[in-house]
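Bench notes, afternoon.
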Amino acid sequence: MGTSTRNGGQTGHSPLIPTWLPEEGEPTTAIPVNNVEQEAPLESTIQPQSFITPIPPNADSLRFSGVKRSITRYITDGGRDSGVLKRGLSRYVKKALGGNANATKRLGAASNSTAAFYDVLSVLSGDGGVRAVALHFSIDKLEGLQASEFFIKIADSICPDGGTNNEGIARSAYFDVIADNPEIMDKKIENLNTEEIEIILQKYITKVIMQKLLNDVANKIIRIPENIDEVTRLEEQIEQLIEQNVADSFAQVKQQYGSITDAKTKDITDTVYRRTYATLERAGA
C-alpha cells in the first residue's frame, strides 16, 4: 500500500454528491477493435444556463464519526472481531456515503478510470489485442512487453497524474495493482489469459474502494499500532473482505452482461461498484 493516497479524512460537511462529478450516462470513447469504433463520443454543445445547478446542502457533519469509532475499535482490538469491521463498513456505506448508488457516484474520476481500464482489458482479451491498444493510444512498441511494463506505458491514458483526489486514488490503485501482483505482471502481455485479466480488473476495483475508504475515514486511524507488520496485516484483512465482495459482484455482473468483451464498460464497472457497496452495506445487518 506504499503508493496509497493519504489525507486527514472527511469532516462530513461536504455534500454527499459533489457538484463537480460528471452526470451519469456521460459518453465515453471506446477502443476500436479491428478498426471498428464500438462507442463514439457525442458532440459537445454549449447551452448557456443549462449547466448551472444549485449547490447541494451540506450533509450531516457527524456522518463519519460512527464509522471512525468502529474502525478504531477494530484496529485497537487487533482485528479479532470481524463483526465490528462489517458493521463499520455497513455504516460507512449507508450513513456516511448515503447508500451504494451515492457511494458509486462519489468515486467520480476513479469510476471513469475503471471503465477506461476495463476497456483496455476487454480489448486485450479479444481479437484486437495489444495492437489495437497501441493504435488507439498512439503508443509504439507495446508488443512483447511484460504486463507491468505495458500497463506503466499506458498509465497516463487510463489515470492521468494530478487533479482531483479521486484521480489520485485511481492512479494510486493502478500502480498498487502492478506492484502487488508479480505473478501476473511478470508475464508477457500477450500471454495473459482471460482469467488473469479479470483478476486484474477485480483487484483494481478493490484497491479503489479500499483507498477511498482510507481517505474518507482518515487513514491515520489504521496507524494506531506501532508495529508496521501489524499495520500491514490489518490493512490486508480489510482489503481481503472487500476483494471477496468485489469477486462475488463481478461474477454476478458478468453473468448478467455476458463476456468481458461487452462494450458497455461504464455500465458494467459501475454495476460492480454498486453491487459491492450494496453487499458491504448489508454486511452489518
